[in-house]
Amino acid sequence: MAEAKAEAERSGRGRPTLLYATKRLELAIRARLEEMLQGSGVTALQYTALTVLAVREGVTAAQLARDSFVTPQAMADMLRVMERSELIDRRPNPTNGRERLVSITDRGRAVVETHAQAARELERRMTADWSPRDVEAFHGALESSWRALR
Amino acid sequence: MAEAKAEAERSGRGRPTLLYATKRLELAIRARLEEMLQGSGVTALQYTALTVLAVREGVTAAQLARDSFVTPQAMADMLRVMERSELIDRRPNPTNGRERLVSITDRGRAVVETHAQAARELERRMTADWSPRDVEAFHGALESSWRALR
DNA sequence: CAAATTTCAGCTTAACTGACATCC
DNA sequence: CGGATGTCAGTTTAGCTGAAATTT
Questions:
Q1: Mean per-residue pLDDT over chain A, rounded
Q2: Per the confidence metrics, is the pTM higher than 0.85?
Q3: What's the CA gap between B105 and B81, in Å, rounded?
Q4: DSSP labels for B7-20?
Q5: Residues A13, A19: Cα–Cα separation, whole Å
Q6: Cβ contact B60:B100 at 8 Å
Q7: Which residue among A16, A63, B87, B147 is buried most deeply as judged by most CB within 10 Å?
Q8: Which residue in chain A has the smallest CA separation from B25?
């Protein structure tokens, strides 16, 4: 057990692992997002999904599930709720009968825009005092490590 | 709605937001951690908590909850399960009767060590081809943005 | 047939809110 | 007393597994 402690010391004076540091940041973001969305009728998870769908038209639930590392069932659950709230709609793919393509609705877009200002503020708060280079590097690092785990 | 799309374009050709990029990475890490822990009897969440407790002796549940941005009740739930599995124990603080200090047990430490190799491999995979500088910068960025949201 | 997408059903876990006792 | 800690009870949500229908 002394070894575990020594290992931790060697790897940076008790600095949390990359794995934990990522989780911790995600939890903090979720907490702040939920504050921001108080009373809006959408959850932090739904809002995050909407920001993705706002720039990604006509994608299948299965593809979204793969991108997000959740099961198709979990994604279907979320989409069903969002469809009921008319934040998204799903239409059969004309060129592939079994697929249903997901799109954001005008109402979904309105939700995103209503909170866009606050969301940008949140990101700005996270990256206050960083250079544009640093922000760019952080973006790149998050994306690159995500891709490495696919 | 054309504005939302234009905004997205301007901010980087449909690049996901920092908020989503972080969540997506966290989900990917969790999925890989759970593969790694198959059959070990601990969840990804418990394992991550154990790695923290391995380098942080004698802390209260309330403090852990604050650090992790979860409610005290959620933390209590998790600790109760881990105590039952004898991964941690809790003893009254001699200098403060109401507090119960959490410590990792030898068994908890053994779990961490059993998977330390695989966890390091996971982190290495995330940061393959990065310079030590880049890894350090990523660590710093995760911690700094977490701190900015507290 | 094999593979992929979607859906249904049932379940477990992780979180929440609210209330309350306890202790400095 | 006020503030923090811890716990109990009940609920909700998010995720899972397993199984089946459908289509390419």
A1: 89
A2: yes
A3: 14
A4: HHHHTTTTPPPHHH
A5: 16
A6: yes
A7: B87
A8: A146
Which residue from A120, A118, A90, A112 is spatially nearest to A103, judged by alpha carbons? A90
Whether B70 sits with its Cβ under 7 A from any strand C atom: the answer reads yes
Structure-token match 């997000």, residue found: A68
Q: Which two three-digit tokens encode residue A80?
A: 């069903």
Please indicate if any CB of chain A lies within 8 Å of the CB of B74.
Answer: no
Q: Is A13 exposed, middle or buried (0-12, 13-18, 19+ CB in 10 A)?
A: exposed
Interchain contact, A123 vs B30, CB within 8 Å: no
Q: Which residues of A touch B72 (CB under 8 A)?
A: none
In this structure, the number of other CB atoms found within 10 A of the CB of residue B73 comes to 10
For β-strands A96-104 and B59-60, DSSP reports them as unpaired
DSSP SS3 for A15 = coil
DSSP state of A133: H
CA-based nearest distance A119→chain B, Å:
9
Burial class for B64, CB neighbours closer than 10 Å (0-12, 13-18, 19+): buried
Could you tell me if A23 and B48 are in contact, meaning their C-beta atoms sit under 8 angstroms apart? yes
Give the span between the Cα atoms of A125 and A58, in whole angstroms.
32
DSSP letter, residue B136: H
CA distance B28 to chain A (A): 6
Protein residue closest to C22, using CA and C1':
B98
Section A65-91 average pLDDT: 93
Of B53, B8, B25, the closest CA to residue B142 belongs to: B25
Average pLDDT of span B35-49: 91
